Amino acid sequence: MTAGPAVGSATPLRHAPTDPAGPASTDTPPGGTAQPSLLLRTAFALMSSTVASAALGFVFWLVAARWFPPERVGWAAAAISSMALLAGLAQLNLTSLFARFLPTAGTRSRRLILAGYAASAAMAVLLTAGFLGLGLLSGVLGSQPVEVLAFVAAVVASAIFFIQDGVLAALRRPGLVPVKNVLASAGKLALLPLLAGTAAGYGLLLAWTVPMLVTMLAVNWWILTRLAPAQRRTASTPRPTSREVFNFASAEYVNGTINNTLAFLPPVLVVSLLGPVPSAYFHLPWVIGVAGTTVLWNVVTSFVVQASSDDGGRMRAHIDRAVLLVALVAGLAMLTLVAAATPLLGLLGSDYAAHGADALRLVGLSLPFTGVVLLYAAFAMMEKRMWRMVLVQAFGAVICLGGTVLGLPRFGIAAPALALLVGQAVTAAVLVPGLVRRYRATAVDPASGTAGGRLEAGMTGA
Description:
- Helices cover 74% and strands 0% of the residues.
- It is mainly alpha-helical.
- The relative contact order is 0.17.
């Protein structure tokens, strides 16, 4: 459940000059007055977005648990997890591609964004049709054409909604990310009491999807008519080759497929193997884990956006900030979830706490290992060589998903969380040596005064 990209072979980090269209991308302006780092501003904007959205999402499920029976909550959770799984696969992990290439796309920004949206929408339709044809959604979706079309539209909207965070961060408007996500989350919560008991039992799903669709359309209008046309590109900015973009995107898609399957398939397996009531108890601990991973990924995305727009002279400072933020977030999240699992889930009811607390604790223990994987992934994105990590991520996913399937009958809903912890720990152990080499390679070269003076040597054999 890392949501991150892959890590590739040893190559020097490559950087593009700062885009003059984005003055916020510099740490120190000509006058010499220090400005807040773009990395920190972007990271805190994205993290605050995730935390606020997660808090409102928690309240959403809290209200749903109070107003609806566990069977109905479990069914809705399975339907939303299926939608998230399909949208996660359909978004093609374009957030990473936009973070890496959009800051320097200049006048080609709008075309790059629209191409990404079109590819994601087409993949969403194909994947949903495939799942329907194979009967994989028979337990969560009816056979009426209106239901099917509405579900397909919701998957397309969800995929583009996911991608927008990366677009806004890459266009150096990270402050709009929490606004977008909080508005959508607040809309879900506001609609829930209005739709309770209506729409033939689909009130939970409608309350979840309608605000997201409206917000997605409004934000896209702003991106395509205002932000993207304002992008510029200097003549000295290197234009990535088509092969470079294709290799990056293809590796990212494979990794994104693995990671999104790892994030969104376990809830579907729980409802399929154990039923809707255990699914209701499992859903929130797993969603909290996904939110924690997303917060960590926000830090990594911010680092990549900053490093992609920098000339390399401050690389070590950017890395130090990213490492510190990941350590703080992962450590605090782990301590909070381990210590407060029972009272936190007790807000939904005693049954939720009794059945879900162990799963939430195990998910919390996995977050520091996830942080290690994501930090290593950040270097891979900058190197634009990531296929090696595909094998590592696939290995971790096999442990997690295999452990989930084998453990559910014996350990119940704690099985996916335990399998996640083991998978992430093994993956992190494999990646730590290479991560340490990459970090040491960014030490300041005394002769040049710039970071990364020994980077290529440090990458050898990584």
